[in-house]
């Protein structure tokens, strides 16, 4: 049973027929004039995706409404919670869509099915609210329980998307555990042309590095795989002391790895740099090991 359930949750990621829908929807979401608010919806100010936090309110309201539906004399409270859940689902959906538009194909396929389940839940709960307001309590409860089932299925897919498919997870989190303590030679100063991104590797290639020597001789070193979805920062654009990921446009400051713009919500691991008298460049990751 467990294997069958996992396979059914894995299946949407392989539904290539969804790609015909994904392309147009992705262009619409990316084209929305959200400005810096897009980074807020991604969760940049809090350091992790905002969507999982926002979904707690509608799910909590709807589950509480289901409990009240089993208790006599709580019709008004149950209807209020149903309405609160519908309204709270809207900003959660916005955050989910902006994250969805910057993911890999298999993640977007699963995410589209997840969004469909949640849209169905919102529709069912909206009808439940209307029926309750017209005195059709039994019908309102039935629509409510149907909505909770759809939301539960959508939530299961959302968890699968987040943890099994790793959408939204910080892809650089393992770096400190893969780099041995101490200083590591990565080349000589002349190996790093000014203003160019150079790739180096630590730990038999387990940790790729982005090395940039700036005008004046200062050298900055970051983990080279983007914290968002492991995009190759060494192929990105360098400008104004930052590097822009070529895959989804996340911007990181070279001096300390801070994420200036999303969709990445986690910074890049930044290495300390030491140049010996013979021109050999050494790097060390604080706290590695």
SSE layout and pairings?
Blueprint: H1 2-10, H2 19-31, H3 37-42, H4 51-54, H5 56-68, H6 75-100, H7 105-133, H8 137-164, H9 175-178, E1 184-188, E2 197-202, E3 207-213, E4 219-223, E5 237-239, E6 242-244, E7 251-253, E8 259-261, E9 270-275, E10 280-284
Antiparallel strand pairs: 1-10, 2-3, 3-4, 4-9, 5-6, 6-7, 7-8, 9-10
- The proportion of residues forming helix, as a percent range, comes to 40-55%
Shape summary: elongated
Structural class: alpha+beta
Q: Report on the biggest sheet.
A: 6 strands, antiparallel
What number of domains? 2
Mean pLDDT score, rounded? 95
Q: Give the percentage of residues in beta strands.
A: 15-25%
N-C termini distance: 40 Å
What's the gyration radius in Å? 24 Å
What is the count of β-strands?
10
pLDDT < 50 runs, ≥5 residues: none
> How many alpha or pi helices?
9
């Amino acid at each position: 049973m467990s294997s069958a359930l996992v396979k059914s949750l894995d299946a949407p990621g392989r539904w290539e027929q969804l790609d015909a829908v994904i392309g147009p929807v992705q262009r619409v979401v990316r084209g929305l004039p959200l400005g810096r608010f897009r980074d807020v919806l991604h969760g940049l100010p809090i350091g992790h995706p905002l969507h999982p936090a926002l979904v707690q309110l509608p799910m909590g309201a709807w589950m509480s409404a289901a409990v009240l539906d089993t208790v006599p004399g709580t019709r008004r409270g149950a209807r209020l919670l149903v309405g609160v859940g519908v309204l709270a689902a809207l900003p959660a959906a916005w955050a989910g869509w902006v994250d969805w538009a910057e993911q890999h194909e298999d993640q977007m396929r699963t995410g589209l099915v997840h969004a469909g389940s949640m849209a169905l839940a919102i529709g069912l709960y909206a009808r439940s609210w209307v029926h309750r307001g017209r005195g059709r309590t039994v019908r309102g409860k039935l629509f409510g329980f149907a909505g909770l089932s759809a939301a539960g299925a959508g939530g299961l897919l959302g968890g699968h998307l987040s943890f099994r498919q790793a959408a939204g997870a910080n892809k650089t989190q393992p770096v400190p555990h893969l780099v041995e303590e101490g200083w590591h030679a990565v080349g000589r100063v002349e190996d790093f042309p000014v203003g160019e991104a150079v790739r180096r590797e630590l730990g038999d290639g387990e940790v790729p590095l982005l090395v940039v020597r700036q005008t004046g001789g200062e050298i900055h070193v970051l983990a080279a795989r983007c914290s968002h979805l492991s995009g190759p920062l060494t192929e990105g654009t360098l400008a104004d002391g930052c590097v822009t990921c070529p895959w989804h446009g996340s911007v990181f400051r070279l001096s300390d790895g801070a994420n200036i713009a999303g969709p990445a919500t986690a910074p890049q691991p930044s290495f300390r740099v030491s140049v010996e008298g013979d021109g050999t460049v050494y790097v060390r990751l604080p706290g590695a090991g």
